[in-house]
Design goal:
Layout lengths: L3 H30 L3 H27 L19 H28 L3 H31 L3 H10 L15
Family: Belongs to the ferritin family. Prokaryotic subfamily.
Subcellular location: Cytoplasm
Keywords: Cytoplasm, Iron, Iron storage, Metal-binding, Oxidoreductase
Length: 172
């Protein structure tokens, strides 16, 4: 059974994940109308992934005797000055989500809710990967600068982007 404190914190995270999905959907649309098909498809996939993260939380709250709340969402930013700015906002948002997940973990330990703590470890590992991907993308974007040919190649290649993070490395 979830404490009211954990339930409220998890419901806050449900909203954050839903807003993440909407933000990435807006980024996908922006990139698509700019003719950046690869970036757009990458962001559509990110949006879907964030929605899956939200649904995983919803199911967990309900299975633990709580009541998941689906609330109104803040409207996402829908325009960007450049694809670089868009990816800077992506990284900043992933850092925000990581901080929120870390706070959830802290609350779960304070509440001695070890089932929630265990469940949240997946999100901790996921955020390590999400931040690593965003940083890798920004490194590539910074290398490209204003080179249109570089942007063309990046747009084509982003869908194959994978990042191996510390979380993926087996412990010895």
């Amino acid at each position: 059974m979830l404490s009211k404190t954990i339930e409220a914190a998890l419901n806050k995270q449900i909203r954050i994940e839903a807003e993440s999905s909407q933000a990435y959907l807006a980024m996908a649309v922006w990139a698509e109308v700019k003719g950046l098909e690869g970036i757009s498809n990458f962001m559509y996939d990110q949006s879907d992934e964030e929605r899956e993260h939200m649904l995983k939380l919803v199911k967990f709250v309900n299975e633990r005797g709580g009541h998941a709340h689906i609330s109104e969402l803040n409207a996402p930013n829908v325009t960007f000055n450049s694809f670089k700015e868009m990816f800077e906002k992506l990284l900043a948002h992933e850092i925000f989500v990581s901080e929120s997940i870390n706070e959830l973990v802290h609350i779960s330990l304070q509440e001695k809710d070890y089932a929630s703590h265990n469940f949240l470890q997946w999100y901790v590992a996921e955020q390590i990967e999400e931040e690593a991907v965003a940083r890798t993308i920004l490194d590539k974007v910074n290398m490209i600068g204003d080179d249109k040919g570089g942007l063309y190649l990046f747009d084509r290649d982003i869908q194959q982007l994978t990042v191996s993070s510390a979380a993926d490395t087996p412990a010895e």
